[in-house]
Structures are given as structure tokens and as C-alpha cells.
Amino acid sequence: xxxxxxxxxxxxxxxxxxxxARVAADLADRLEAIPRPFARALxxxxxxxxxxxxxxxxxxxxxxxxxxEADVAGSAVEIDLERLPFADSAFDLIVSPLALHxxxxxxxxxxxxxxxxxxxxxxxxxxxxxxxxxxxxxxLIEAESEITxxxxxxxxxxxxxxxxxxxxxxxxxxxxxxxxxxxTVRYGDxxxxxxxxxxxxxxxxxxxxxxxxxxxxxxxxTFEIYRQRFSDxxxxxxxxxxxxxxxxxxxxxxQQKPLRPGSAKTRLADALGVPEQSAGEKPDGS
Length: 286
Description:
The chain is α/β, with parallel strands linked by helices. The protein has one domain: Rossmann fold, CATH 3.40.50. The protein contains 11 helices and 7 strands. Helix 3 packs across helix 4 and helix 7 crosses helix 10. The radius of gyration is 23 Å and the shape is globular.
């Protein structure tokens, strides 16, 4: 179903992919701050926007060699995100603009990606986080509960920032880090939000979705609640997108490692210009 959604979105993707374009630009910005070459890169998802962003930056393009574009649909290489078809140590760089939130086994995919990196290779992956579409999620639940007496899952679950940071460490990345970008999009009519989601190929592909389709009555009530609760002072409906970005390196002996406990050569108290106290000593000396 995810592949079908992406294939149907191909014709209108360019007009709706403003978030994908934002993420592609952000990933390119991050790479510009890393002064090293990457001979072979994989762009996993993003509809070719990352390659286009690199081509628009000559200095960055000079440091990145071959870019392999892979996606579930409409790309040079069509892949299954759960079973990636690339060899171990195949890439110096892997970027993934807004693709990994669709995988069922995110820990397993992160391990696959780490194995596909050469030692000291870099992963930069952006995906939607837990606050994404919170307004739509709450409006759907309330409307469906009010009209049918129950609510089924309509919006896919997303990882949180804490989840992602822990998963990077669990998957064996060195120097793991994760950060978030909270984006608020405003619509004169919240129905346009659904149009953008369809245009991006980001509508629900849940396998265990509710057997009941969304009736016109439920949808009408959903957007009535949406307008009432989530409009700004100018009457525009707000839609939140949380974008999480994961950074991790394939382990290599040249990378920085934490110092052993007790190996410091300068006391923190000396650096701060204060008297040193033992862990059990109270400030008043008692």
C-alpha cells in the first residue's frame, strides 16, 4: 500500500513536496559543515530532491561522488525499505529524507544501514516524529468517537526523539545524535492538508487500519472540530510536522572516544575557581 501511495503521488509530487524539499536542503546544509569527501552516497527516499539540492551547490557536489537514488517507487532503484539490496560497506554516506517513518522494523533497518556504510561512513536520516499531525489525529478520534461510538487507527504511529537517539546507539553507531525541527503549516481550509498528504504520498498505509471507511459525515465533523480547536487568530488551520534527524557514524578506530573515568588532568573546581567538595560533603562543611 505504501508503494501504491507513492506511485499515485508521482504526478503531483513536485507541487506538494515542500517538506521533502526543506529536509533535502537541511541535509545538504549539514553536509556542507563536514569538510570531507564522500565517494559513494545513497539517497534513500526523497524523490530525487537530495540529488537536485547537491547539484545546486557546486562546492558540495565536488566532494560527493556517485549518488545512488533508491525509493519504494519512482526512483532509479526501487527497493523494499525493510530488505535493502545493498552490500556491506557499499557507501561512504547514506542520507534518507523522510522515508524511514514508514518502516515496520526501524531498529532492524538502522542496523542494515550501518552495515552498508564503510568504516567511518556517515548516516543522516530525517523522518517524521511523534508530534506530526497531532491536530488531525485528535480531530479524527473525537469525530469518529462522537458519531460511531469508537475510533480506529487512522494516522500512523511515529518515533519520538528519545526513541531515535536510543535506537541509534542500539544499532551500533558511533557518535550518535538526534535533533528535531517543529514545522507549523497553516491552511485556509484544512481539506487542503489532505490534498498535500496525498500529493506527497504520505496518506495512511496502516495494515491494521479500521475496517470502517471514513464516511463523509465523520470527515465533515473532523474538519469542523479542526477549525474550532486548531485555527490561529486569522482563522487558518494549523498542522504540525515534527521532523527528527538522526546522525551516526559507522565505527572506526580513528573516531573520538570518551576518556576513562579518573583520567582527567585538570580539576573542574580549578576551572570554575571554586573550592572542591567531596560527593558526601554538604556546602556548609557539615
